[in-house]
Amino acid sequence: MKPFRDTWLVFQRQMLLVRRTPIRLVIGITQPIAYLLLFAPLLKPALAPMGATSYADAYRIYVPGLLVVLVLLSGLFTGFGLLAELRAGIIERSRVTPMSRFALLLGRALSEVATLMGQAVLITLLAIPFGLTVSIGPLLLAYLMLALMGLMASALSYAVALVIRSPAALGPLMNTVSQPLALLSGVLLPLALAPHWLVSIARWNPFYWATNGTRALFAGHVDDPSVWQGMLVIIVLTVLAVLWSTRLFAQRVR
Amino acid sequence: MIKTSGLRKSFTVKKGATVDAVRGVDLDVTEGEIFGFLGPNGAGKTTTLRMLSTLLVPDGGEATIAGADLRGDPGQVRMRIGYVAQGGGTTDEVTAREELVLQARMYGIGKTEARERANTALDAFQLTEYADRPCATYSGGQRRRLDIALGVIHHPRVLFLDEPTVGLDPQSRAHMWDEVRRLRADGMTVFITTHYLEEADALCDRIAIIDHGTIVAEGTPDDLKREISGDVVTVGIEGSTQHAADLLRDKDDVQRLETIDGGLRLYVDDSSTAIPQILRALDGAGIEFGKLELHRPSLDDVFLTKTGRQMRES
């Protein structure tokens, strides 16, 4: 019980900070909205080979990709927040209390996930006037998949931040890692359009599976094999990432 | 209340070399005292403090804090101690009340009780007026008071304070001393590190000095000053002090001698016989000397004698 109560406590505190500085939400969401408004209208003709005959089809393909980019990129940069809190002594103050160490990290990661999901819902709503239609059941499953991706990316970012310890190095490193990961999961344009060799590489990228699964869910195809495949890949990776980062946190934060 | 024996910690630095930061610290802090822990930078002061507050795991040795075994049961130690870091650790966007309630909840205290404790703490540390403003708006003194209020919200038996008055103006510092004395009056044991020797002198019941990872002196400030027996005489010398130093070093009354900026500092048994002797010697050798000062040893002198360094330059 205690780890859960502690996680909830840390989560509440981090959400309080988010409420106090709403500007952070705005900054995180500006770029996806720009893509939604300024890039997506090009999509119907571009996605025609995928069978997109209407804007609704185009948005069903594009919006899930955009959401994957959002949770993946924002998640991978949450390590900055952890480093700042370490530097400010906020984490040290909790470490001299009997709080569960696991909770100190997980509560933080979950608050990042909650923020990301808020942004994801907002983007989905904004896409509706453009003709996006999606049924609620599959949508909730898609959100679950996105939430797990966010948790994984955040845990990964914490772990890397704890290893390299330098905000100056974390930024470039995360950029270097995240750009190919995002492109190789076909977030902008589905890899179904890609040449064979590119798809073979993408198959090694876990986010490729997760992106396909999310797209299938937005299209309402809950029984598409890509859904359970994506879900399985993401669940395994999330568990590993959380274990790795909490272990590092217990060992390295001194 | 705090008892350690042989507490050790070493760190691995680059290329596998190890640094023995703390090499066997024995301390015995009794209940209800303000205990000062002094030492030059790099002497092992912070490492010891971090071990005692469970932030670092010792490599060896034993420690019991408020009856709980540091290495066997750090969880219990955490319940019984409070720790206030030098930089505090409050968040700019959050209010004092929110921080206090959260801190109480971190110790497993229920919501209602946490709110009551926050109110009591705000009152006790004269923060009620600012309780609902974000911490970013606080003055240095207010922030420091909040830090300490956070450190004692769970009524610990021992409070660790790391450099509690760094960066405070004299008035806030005096205020902080009063707060610490008030905590002692409530029965709390306070373990404090400081760079200010006058602070240690005025505030602490007993002090320990750590250097090169071991305790080099321990006792009440008065005892330690007495230990460096006799008086301290400072003579201003014009020109080179080398000649004068050689001349005076062997005098019977002079125990120890140091070159300082523009003169010499001499530790003597009895100034009433030593001063004439010093003056006669200097005069006889034709050395021009200026101002001569006499003072009782201060903690600065204790520190210098024990560590060979001035606190300020360290």
Automatic annotation (TrEMBL), chain A:
<feature type="transmembrane region" description="Helical">
    <location>
        <begin position="140"/>
        <end position="161"/>
    </location>
</feature>
<feature type="domain" description="ABC transmembrane type-2">
    <location>
        <begin position="23"/>
        <end position="252"/>
    </location>
</feature>
<feature type="transmembrane region" description="Helical">
    <location>
        <begin position="181"/>
        <end position="199"/>
    </location>
</feature>
<keyword id="KW-1133">Transmembrane helix</keyword>
<keyword id="KW-0046">Antibiotic resistance</keyword>
<feature type="transmembrane region" description="Helical">
    <location>
        <begin position="61"/>
        <end position="84"/>
    </location>
</feature>
<feature type="transmembrane region" description="Helical">
    <location>
        <begin position="227"/>
        <end position="250"/>
    </location>
</feature>
<keyword id="KW-0812">Transmembrane</keyword>
<dbReference type="InterPro" id="IPR051784">
    <property type="entry name" value="Nod_factor_ABC_transporter"/>
</dbReference>
<protein>
    <recommendedName>
        <fullName>Transport permease protein</fullName>
    </recommendedName>
</protein>
<feature type="transmembrane region" description="Helical">
    <location>
        <begin position="105"/>
        <end position="128"/>
    </location>
</feature>
<keyword id="KW-0813">Transport</keyword>
<dbReference type="Pfam" id="PF01061">
    <property type="entry name" value="ABC2_membrane"/>
</dbReference>
<comment type="similarity">
    <text>Belongs to the ABC-2 integral membrane protein family.</text>
</comment>
<dbReference type="InterPro" id="IPR047817">
    <property type="entry name" value="ABC2_TM_bact-type"/>
</dbReference>
<dbReference type="GO" id="GO:0140359">
    <property type="term" value="F:ABC-type transporter activity"/>
</dbReference>
<dbReference type="GO" id="GO:0043190">
    <property type="term" value="C:ATP-binding cassette (ABC) transporter complex"/>
</dbReference>
<feature type="transmembrane region" description="Helical">
    <location>
        <begin position="21"/>
        <end position="41"/>
    </location>
</feature>
<keyword id="KW-0472">Membrane</keyword>
<keyword id="KW-1003">Cell membrane</keyword>
<dbReference type="GO" id="GO:0046677">
    <property type="term" value="P:response to antibiotic"/>
</dbReference>
<dbReference type="InterPro" id="IPR013525">
    <property type="entry name" value="ABC2_TM"/>
</dbReference>
TrEMBL record, chain B:
<dbReference type="GO" id="GO:0043215">
    <property type="term" value="P:daunorubicin transport"/>
</dbReference>
<dbReference type="Pfam" id="PF00005">
    <property type="entry name" value="ABC_tran"/>
</dbReference>
<dbReference type="InterPro" id="IPR003593">
    <property type="entry name" value="AAA+_ATPase"/>
</dbReference>
<dbReference type="GO" id="GO:0016887">
    <property type="term" value="F:ATP hydrolysis activity"/>
</dbReference>
<dbReference type="InterPro" id="IPR050763">
    <property type="entry name" value="ABC_transporter_ATP-binding"/>
</dbReference>
<dbReference type="GO" id="GO:0005886">
    <property type="term" value="C:plasma membrane"/>
</dbReference>
<keyword id="KW-0067">ATP-binding</keyword>
<dbReference type="GO" id="GO:1900753">
    <property type="term" value="P:doxorubicin transport"/>
</dbReference>
<keyword id="KW-0813">Transport</keyword>
<keyword id="KW-0472">Membrane</keyword>
<dbReference type="Pfam" id="PF13732">
    <property type="entry name" value="DrrA1-3_C"/>
</dbReference>
<dbReference type="InterPro" id="IPR017871">
    <property type="entry name" value="ABC_transporter-like_CS"/>
</dbReference>
<dbReference type="GO" id="GO:0005524">
    <property type="term" value="F:ATP binding"/>
</dbReference>
<keyword id="KW-1278">Translocase</keyword>
<dbReference type="InterPro" id="IPR027417">
    <property type="entry name" value="P-loop_NTPase"/>
</dbReference>
<feature type="domain" description="ABC transporter">
    <location>
        <begin position="2"/>
        <end position="237"/>
    </location>
</feature>
<keyword id="KW-0046">Antibiotic resistance</keyword>
<dbReference type="InterPro" id="IPR025302">
    <property type="entry name" value="DrrA1/2-like_C"/>
</dbReference>
<dbReference type="InterPro" id="IPR005894">
    <property type="entry name" value="DrrA"/>
</dbReference>
<keyword id="KW-0547">Nucleotide-binding</keyword>
<dbReference type="GO" id="GO:0046677">
    <property type="term" value="P:response to antibiotic"/>
</dbReference>
<dbReference type="InterPro" id="IPR003439">
    <property type="entry name" value="ABC_transporter-like_ATP-bd"/>
</dbReference>
